[in-house]
Amino acid sequence: MTCPRSVRNVLPDFATKPTIDGDLVRLVPLETRHLDELWPAYEDAELARLTGSTGTFTRDETERIIAGRRHAPDRLDLAVIERATGRCVGEVVLNEWDEHNRSCNFRTLFVASGRDRGFGTEAIRLILEHAFNTLALHRISLGVFAFNARARRVYEKLGFVEEGVLRETLNWDGEWHDEIIMSILEDEWRSGRELPIDA
Ligand SMILES: CC(C)(COP(=O)(O)OP(=O)(O)OC[C@H]1O[C@@H](n2cnc3c(N)ncnc32)[C@H](O)[C@@H]1OP(=O)(O)O)[C@@H](O)C(=O)NCCC(=O)NCCS
Prior knowledge:
The chain is of the alpha+beta class and 199 residues long. It contains 7 helices and 8 strands. It has helices at residues 5-8, 35-42, 45-51, 59-69, 119-133, 149-157, 186-192; strands at 20-21, 25-29, 76-82, 88-98, 103-110, 139-145, 161-172, 175-185. Strands 1-2-3-4-5-6-8-7 form an 8-stranded mixed sheet, with helices on both faces. The chain is globular, with a radius of gyration of 17 Å. Residues 47, 50-51, 90, 108-110, 115-121, 144, 148-151, 153-154, 157, 198 line the site of coenzyme A (COA).
Protein backbone atom coordinates (compact mmCIF):
# COMPACT_ATOMS: atom_id res chain seq x y z
CA MET A 1 0.00 0.00 0.00
CA THR A 2 1.33 3.49 -0.81
CA CYS A 3 1.17 6.30 1.68
CA PRO A 4 0.63 10.05 1.44
CA ARG A 5 3.76 12.13 0.79
CA SER A 6 3.21 14.08 4.02
CA VAL A 7 3.40 10.89 6.08
CA ARG A 8 6.42 9.57 4.18
CA ASN A 9 8.32 12.74 4.97
CA VAL A 10 7.78 12.60 8.73
CA LEU A 11 11.01 11.58 10.48
CA PRO A 12 10.28 9.57 13.60
CA ASP A 13 11.37 11.23 16.82
CA PHE A 14 12.95 8.31 18.64
CA ALA A 15 14.99 10.62 20.87
CA THR A 16 11.93 11.79 22.77
CA LYS A 17 11.23 8.89 25.09
CA PRO A 18 7.57 8.86 26.08
CA THR A 19 5.71 7.84 29.21
CA ILE A 20 2.57 5.96 28.22
CA ASP A 21 -0.20 4.92 30.60
CA GLY A 22 -2.32 1.82 30.25
CA ASP A 23 -4.73 0.30 32.77
CA LEU A 24 -2.29 -2.25 34.22
CA VAL A 25 1.08 -0.90 33.18
CA ARG A 26 2.93 2.32 32.48
CA LEU A 27 5.71 2.51 29.91
CA VAL A 28 8.61 4.78 30.87
CA PRO A 29 12.09 5.36 29.41
CA LEU A 30 14.33 2.44 30.36
CA GLU A 31 16.99 3.55 32.85
CA THR A 32 19.79 1.81 34.70
CA ARG A 33 17.76 1.83 37.96
CA HIS A 34 15.32 -0.61 36.35
CA LEU A 35 18.10 -3.18 36.28
CA ASP A 36 17.53 -3.86 39.99
CA GLU A 37 14.34 -5.65 38.95
CA LEU A 38 15.32 -6.77 35.43
CA TRP A 39 18.78 -8.17 36.15
CA PRO A 40 17.53 -11.46 37.72
CA ALA A 41 15.50 -12.01 34.53
CA TYR A 42 18.55 -11.36 32.34
CA GLU A 43 20.34 -14.12 34.26
CA ASP A 44 17.40 -16.56 34.17
CA ALA A 45 18.05 -19.74 32.13
CA GLU A 46 14.41 -20.13 31.03
CA LEU A 47 14.30 -16.57 29.75
CA ALA A 48 17.57 -17.14 27.89
CA ARG A 49 15.96 -20.15 26.16
CA LEU A 50 12.78 -18.22 25.28
CA THR A 51 14.74 -15.32 23.79
CA GLY A 52 17.66 -17.35 22.49
CA SER A 53 20.05 -15.12 24.41
CA THR A 54 23.61 -16.16 24.84
CA GLY A 55 24.73 -12.73 26.01
CA THR A 56 27.54 -12.57 28.50
CA PHE A 57 27.47 -8.89 29.46
CA THR A 58 28.28 -8.07 33.05
CA ARG A 59 25.92 -5.86 35.00
CA ASP A 60 28.33 -2.91 34.64
CA GLU A 61 28.45 -3.38 30.88
CA THR A 62 24.66 -3.67 30.73
CA GLU A 63 24.30 -0.46 32.74
CA ARG A 64 26.54 1.35 30.27
CA ILE A 65 24.53 -0.01 27.33
CA ILE A 66 21.24 1.09 28.88
CA ALA A 67 22.60 4.54 29.76
CA GLY A 68 23.79 4.95 26.18
CA ARG A 69 20.32 4.21 24.86
CA ARG A 70 18.55 6.76 27.07
CA HIS A 71 18.67 9.43 24.33
CA ALA A 72 19.26 7.18 21.30
CA PRO A 73 17.85 8.77 18.12
CA ASP A 74 17.25 5.45 16.35
CA ARG A 75 15.62 3.12 18.86
CA LEU A 76 13.15 3.10 21.73
CA ASP A 77 13.72 1.14 24.94
CA LEU A 78 10.86 1.38 27.43
CA ALA A 79 10.54 -0.18 30.87
CA VAL A 80 7.18 -1.68 31.77
CA ILE A 81 6.03 -0.62 35.22
CA GLU A 82 3.21 -2.45 37.02
CA ARG A 83 0.96 0.44 38.00
CA ALA A 84 -0.39 -1.26 41.14
CA THR A 85 3.06 -1.69 42.71
CA GLY A 86 5.42 0.63 40.85
CA ARG A 87 7.86 -2.21 40.17
CA CYS A 88 9.50 -2.78 36.82
CA VAL A 89 8.18 -6.02 35.33
CA GLY A 90 9.64 -5.97 31.84
CA GLU A 91 10.83 -4.07 28.82
CA VAL A 92 9.54 -3.41 25.30
CA VAL A 93 11.94 -2.33 22.57
CA LEU A 94 11.79 -1.00 19.04
CA ASN A 95 15.19 -1.33 17.37
CA GLU A 96 16.84 -1.87 13.97
CA TRP A 97 15.09 1.22 12.62
CA ASP A 98 15.12 1.40 8.82
CA GLU A 99 14.54 5.07 8.01
CA HIS A 100 13.83 4.65 4.31
CA ASN A 101 11.26 1.91 4.78
CA ARG A 102 9.88 3.17 8.11
CA SER A 103 10.30 -0.20 9.79
CA CYS A 104 11.59 -1.52 13.08
CA ASN A 105 12.22 -4.78 14.82
CA PHE A 106 10.42 -5.45 18.11
CA ARG A 107 11.55 -7.42 21.13
CA THR A 108 10.33 -7.83 24.68
CA LEU A 109 10.83 -9.69 27.92
CA PHE A 110 9.06 -9.84 31.25
CA VAL A 111 10.36 -11.06 34.62
CA ALA A 112 8.92 -14.43 35.68
CA SER A 113 6.49 -12.91 38.22
CA GLY A 114 5.26 -10.43 35.61
CA ARG A 115 4.22 -13.03 33.03
CA ASP A 116 0.71 -14.37 32.34
CA ARG A 117 -0.99 -11.40 33.99
CA GLY A 118 -1.95 -9.46 30.91
CA PHE A 119 0.97 -7.04 31.21
CA GLY A 120 2.66 -8.15 27.99
CA THR A 121 -0.48 -7.81 25.90
CA GLU A 122 -1.15 -4.32 27.20
CA ALA A 123 2.46 -3.11 27.03
CA ILE A 124 2.89 -4.27 23.43
CA ARG A 125 -0.44 -2.73 22.43
CA LEU A 126 0.74 0.59 23.94
CA ILE A 127 4.08 0.62 22.14
CA LEU A 128 2.41 -0.34 18.86
CA GLU A 129 0.07 2.60 19.29
CA HIS A 130 3.08 4.89 19.77
CA ALA A 131 4.96 3.29 16.89
CA PHE A 132 2.18 3.76 14.36
CA ASN A 133 0.57 6.99 15.63
CA THR A 134 3.54 9.03 16.86
CA LEU A 135 6.56 7.55 15.13
CA ALA A 136 4.61 6.96 11.89
CA LEU A 137 6.21 3.57 11.34
CA HIS A 138 4.92 1.39 8.53
CA ARG A 139 6.06 -2.07 9.56
CA ILE A 140 7.17 -3.78 12.75
CA SER A 141 8.62 -7.26 12.60
CA LEU A 142 9.95 -9.79 15.06
CA GLY A 143 11.30 -13.28 15.39
CA VAL A 144 9.85 -15.77 17.87
CA PHE A 145 10.94 -19.34 18.43
CA ALA A 146 8.40 -21.94 17.38
CA PHE A 147 8.27 -23.44 20.88
CA ASN A 148 7.33 -20.10 22.48
CA ALA A 149 3.56 -20.64 22.31
CA ARG A 150 2.74 -17.90 24.80
CA ALA A 151 4.61 -15.17 22.92
CA ARG A 152 3.15 -16.32 19.61
CA ARG A 153 -0.35 -16.17 21.09
CA VAL A 154 0.20 -12.61 22.34
CA TYR A 155 1.64 -11.38 19.03
CA GLU A 156 -1.15 -13.05 17.06
CA LYS A 157 -3.87 -11.54 19.23
CA LEU A 158 -2.35 -8.07 18.74
CA GLY A 159 -2.47 -8.48 14.97
CA PHE A 160 0.99 -9.73 14.04
CA VAL A 161 0.89 -12.04 11.03
CA GLU A 162 3.20 -15.01 10.47
CA GLU A 163 5.37 -14.48 7.38
CA GLY A 164 7.49 -17.58 7.36
CA VAL A 165 9.94 -19.80 9.13
CA LEU A 166 13.67 -19.50 9.52
CA ARG A 167 14.56 -23.13 9.95
CA GLU A 168 16.73 -24.26 12.86
CA THR A 169 18.20 -20.89 13.77
CA LEU A 170 18.62 -21.85 17.42
CA ASN A 171 20.62 -24.67 18.90
CA TRP A 172 19.65 -25.04 22.52
CA ASP A 173 21.12 -27.87 24.54
CA GLY A 174 21.89 -29.80 21.37
CA GLU A 175 18.41 -29.43 19.81
CA TRP A 176 17.54 -27.33 16.79
CA HIS A 177 14.59 -24.94 16.85
CA ASP A 178 12.82 -22.95 14.13
CA GLU A 179 12.16 -19.22 14.35
CA ILE A 180 8.87 -17.76 13.14
CA ILE A 181 8.99 -14.32 11.52
CA MET A 182 5.94 -12.17 12.24
CA SER A 183 5.05 -8.60 11.35
CA ILE A 184 2.30 -6.03 11.60
CA LEU A 185 1.72 -3.22 9.11
CA GLU A 186 0.25 0.18 9.91
CA ASP A 187 -3.01 -0.36 8.02
CA GLU A 188 -3.50 -3.78 9.66
CA TRP A 189 -3.00 -2.19 13.05
CA ARG A 190 -5.42 0.64 12.25
CA SER A 191 -8.12 -1.72 11.00
CA GLY A 192 -7.77 -4.00 14.03
CA ARG A 193 -7.35 -1.53 16.84
CA GLU A 194 -11.06 -1.25 17.61
CA LEU A 195 -11.14 -4.96 18.45
CA PRO A 196 -11.33 -5.84 22.13
CA ILE A 197 -7.91 -6.76 23.49
CA ASP A 198 -8.93 -10.39 24.12
CA ALA A 199 -10.21 -10.93 20.59
C1 LIG B 1 5.92 -13.39 25.89
C2 LIG B 1 5.52 -12.35 26.93
C3 LIG B 1 6.04 -10.98 26.50
C4 LIG B 1 3.99 -12.29 27.01
O1 LIG B 1 3.61 -11.38 28.00
P1 LIG B 1 2.62 -11.86 29.17
O2 LIG B 1 2.36 -10.70 30.03
O3 LIG B 1 3.22 -13.07 29.84
O4 LIG B 1 1.34 -12.29 28.34
P2 LIG B 1 -0.20 -12.01 28.68
O5 LIG B 1 -0.47 -12.40 30.10
O6 LIG B 1 -0.54 -10.64 28.28
O7 LIG B 1 -0.92 -13.00 27.66
C5 LIG B 1 -0.50 -14.36 27.60
C6 LIG B 1 -1.39 -15.06 26.59
O8 LIG B 1 -0.76 -16.27 26.19
C7 LIG B 1 -1.59 -17.37 26.55
N1 LIG B 1 -0.69 -18.44 26.94
C8 LIG B 1 0.03 -18.57 28.08
N2 LIG B 1 0.77 -19.70 28.03
C9 LIG B 1 0.50 -20.27 26.83
C10 LIG B 1 0.94 -21.46 26.19
N3 LIG B 1 1.83 -22.26 26.78
N4 LIG B 1 0.45 -21.74 24.96
C11 LIG B 1 -0.44 -20.91 24.34
N5 LIG B 1 -0.90 -19.78 24.91
C12 LIG B 1 -0.43 -19.47 26.14
C13 LIG B 1 -2.46 -16.86 27.68
O9 LIG B 1 -3.62 -17.63 27.82
C14 LIG B 1 -2.72 -15.45 27.18
O10 LIG B 1 -3.63 -15.45 26.11
P3 LIG B 1 -5.18 -15.04 26.34
O11 LIG B 1 -5.16 -13.61 26.80
O12 LIG B 1 -5.79 -15.23 25.02
O13 LIG B 1 -5.71 -15.96 27.40
C15 LIG B 1 6.11 -12.71 28.32
O14 LIG B 1 5.48 -13.90 28.79
C16 LIG B 1 7.60 -12.90 28.35
O15 LIG B 1 8.36 -11.95 28.48
N6 LIG B 1 8.06 -14.15 28.23
C17 LIG B 1 9.48 -14.46 28.34
C18 LIG B 1 10.35 -13.83 27.25
C19 LIG B 1 9.77 -14.02 25.88
O16 LIG B 1 9.23 -15.06 25.55
N7 LIG B 1 9.91 -12.95 25.09
C20 LIG B 1 9.44 -12.96 23.72
C21 LIG B 1 10.48 -13.50 22.84
S1 LIG B 1 9.94 -13.43 21.13
